[in-house]
Protein 1
Amino acid sequence: MARPQCSRCCRPVSHCLCPLIPDLANHTRLLILQHRSEAGHALNTARLAALGLRNAQLWIGEHFDGLEALLEAEAGGAALLFPGEQDAPRGNSAPIKPRLLVVPDGSWRKARKILHLHPCLGKLPRLCLSSGQISRYRLRKAPMAGALSTIEAVTLALNMLEAPARFDDLLRPFEALIEGQIAAMGEETFLRNHGDQP
């Protein structure tokens, strides 16, 4: 028999994260495009990010009807949070200040598939985070150096775009989620499977 589930955070009621989810006002609109395979995942950080921000939407699927029209309506005011060659200006140039930040969510393969299925995303300027970031996501082995969970990437991006405002409180439910998963598996199992990570 399935455990009762919180309708908001989609966690078991006994492990509901809602009391830890902040209510943060962000000026940069956030659109998270979550691959449908991630929606039911126990460690769904995209949902936590969307719930903690007043100006955020979470679209779930693979083909997103209306995405191209939405980006056209933004008339150059959108950017894509994803590594790539079209980085935001660096050095003495002012960083881009998008009105809308689009964030693909899924495994690297699934996120790239979303980009492939929606060529309009490839035309957006890319906002790339500084290299050398270390993820707090201790339950997954990063596929590459600097790989972050969606909620970590969103937090860093908003901290950069909306400084001096800070969005670190977004990470509170994420950290509780990680600690809860470690407690459920037991410290010994965690160290055996994940103890070699930085």
Protein 2
Amino acid sequence: MIDVHCHILPDVDDGSECMQESINMAMIAKEQGIDKIIATPHYHPEFKYLKGEELNKVCEEFKKQLKENNIDIEIYLGNEIYFTYDLIEKISELDFYCLNKSKYILIEFPPTNFPLNLCNIVYELKQKGFIPVLAHVERYIKIHDDPEIIYDCIKTGAIIQINSSSLIGKQGKEIQRFCNLLIGRNMVHLVATDAHGSQRRRPMMKDAYQYIEKKYSKEIADNLFINNAQCILDNKEIIIEEPFEKSMEKVSFLKRIFRR
């Protein structure tokens, strides 16, 4: 499996605190069946997180340590970009990393100041040559209140990511139910760990993969955990199914059940 959202690099943000913890996270990931990880440290204008070439040096040293410890996991570099209202205007000046030097960018939004014009933001990022990957959309109350926001964003060109822990109920049954609502409408393209440590928010994906395989199909599980993520690594277009309109929600869920 491929994890496209993981805070595994040591001492660069609020994720892993040291190299040994990063190594421990990698060992957990390997046991889970993860063999490729895009490290996505936070890129936040108000916090002094490591960025630019210094961040790349940490990534290279981590890869060296993995090799010395015989942990066979490929590490790629990206950022999780925190949205601010001047992001679009300043984006060409910022030294963030796209996901493995691709056109895909991972972006999160302020939960208490969620943008009302999300679809327009997706459109403007697309116009600038990026494909926005919207991180952990199940965490936003605004989207729970109006899932059509995600439908419109997908139609505009966004890629949607949810967290593996949310999918299997670790964040509560309501968030799990919402994840299934989105999947049932073809409105999820990636499942990732958003892991932050080896003791808390660990890089766990196996249970989530098996959950999708059992509830929907192996084909869907492979797309959410492997195939679409590989497209990002290869900088290729993700071929996504048309999202279902709200009126088609129950029909789409039944179609996926009987696909198994």
